[in-house]
Amino acid sequence: MKKRPNDSIRIGVLFSETGVTSVIEKSERLGTLLAVDEINETGGINGHALELVSYDPQSSPAKYALLAQKLLLEDHVQVILGCYMSSQRKAVIPVVERWNGLLMYPTLYEGFEFSRNVICTGAAPNQNSVQLADFMLRTYGSRGFMVGSDYIYPYESNRIMSDLVFERGGEKVAEIYLPLDASKDNYEVVVQKIKQTSPDFIFSTIVGDGTALLHRAFANAGLDPRKMPIASLSTCEAEIQQMGAELAEGHITSAPYFQSVDTEANRRCLENFRKRFGDASVTNMCWEAAYFQTHLLANAMRRVGSDNVADLLTVLPGSEFSAPQGDIKIDEHNHHTYLRPRIGRANAAGQFDILCESESWVHPDPYLVSHTLQDWSAPLTTLVPTARP
Fold it and tell me: In this structure, how many other beta carbons lie within 10 angstroms of the beta carbon of residue 156?
């Protein structure tokens, strides 16, 4: 293992403290810190503490690539925990592949990707998009308006969502993209188009600071989430805390984890989290994946007695962990994670009421080779009241 003079084991961390996606990335960093604290308090890695080597990439894909290379070549770490946007991940992948590092990526993404040097612990499209499309068309109607940030994840997610909507006989009313630094006025123009076209729901792949701007423009236009909600794969408790619960209430998110998940592992984890970071801190899907992937890594290091990537890749695929969402597992073949899809509706407390959830974990199918709803729980109509009067 790569050890310091004090015999600690170093791993790299790349989550932004500044920039357009810093709100959610800070939460991923906190999930990582909590897991490292728990690991070190229970003896570390065979008696050696984990030490984080952390940098701020400032939400910039180019800086992600430069700092990933610095971690691998100058700091001599083997494993990097990090990245939020797909553009950031895609900037780092060539670096870890060239220098034989390992990236553990805790964010939902658009799928259709595999690298030997990447472990994906966020949701693949068959673990959130499929369920969200089914839910929205059953509950609200068949006409969807798509709005996203201007980079690869929204483009690909909207392509997947469009296919899912069309398969179910639905219609795409419009598809609009805005720069990551788009202004309040830009969002107001989009919302006016939403108001004019009157879709049944809005599918948002807006990320970062734009999430609050979209929701505020929606509310200012007098639109009603009970009749026409914003549906998202990425709007979570972190963004709700940023924008205020009153703007988020009534809108829908599909995710494997919400802070309100009622499991013993989640209750225990939340208690530890609040002791360290205060009662005002909230968790979310990306926070949870950052948390459990750090524990998966620590368990793998204990098993092989090494932080060597080749050694770790003999045990990480197939490994399991009792995560806050429920038991999870890294797939042996595609390096993605078995997760537990859920649909949540934001409430007045800034949390999510869970409307439905899978009965067991759902295998990751990042290429959407065979997507079904056989793992979904009760019929949605028994769980969710009719949305329209």
Answer: 19
Q: Which two tokens stand for residue 266?
A: 């989640």
Residue 236 CB coordination number (10 Å): 30
3-state secondary structure of 316: coil
pTM for this entry: 0.93
CA distance 9 to 27: 23
Spatial separation of the C-alpha atoms in residues 84 and 58, rounded to whole Å: 11
* CA separation for the pair 271, 268 (Å, rounded): 5
Which pLDDT score, from 0 to 100, does residue 365 have? 95
Nearest by Cα to 210 from 359, 4, 24: 24
The pair of structure tokens assigned to 115 is 């690298």
The pLDDT tens digits for 18-39 are: 999 999 999 999 999 999 999 9
pLDDT band at residue 371 under the 50/70/90 scheme: low
Question: In the numeric block, which tokens belong to residue 157?
Answer: 């997610």
Structural domains in the chain plus CATH codes: 9-123+261-338 (3.40.50.2300), 126-260+342-383 (3.40.50.2300)
Strand order in the sheet with 337-338: 320-323, 326-330, 337-338
Residue 369's pLDDT is what? 85
Q: How far apart are CA 237 and CA 214, in angstroms?
A: 16
Q: Quick one: tokens of 120?
A: 């994906």
Which residues, including other chains, have CB under 8 Å from residue 151's CB and lie 6 or more apart?
85, 86, 87, 180
- Report yes or no: 354 and 261 within 8 Å, Cβ to Cβ: yes
Residues 29 and 54 sit within 8 Å (Cβ to Cβ): yes
Confidence of residue 383 (pLDDT cuts 50, 70, 90): very low
What is the pLDDT at residue 7?
A: 86
Of 107, 4, 89, nearest to 53 by C-alpha is 4
**Residue 244: which region, alpha, beta or left (left: phi > 0; alpha: psi -120 to 50)?**
left
Residue 117, Cβ density class (10 Å: 0-12 exposed, 13-18 middle, ≥19 buried): buried
Which secondary structure element, helix H or strand E, spans residue 71, and what is its range?
helix 61-73
Short-list 194, 180, 184, CA closest to 145: 194
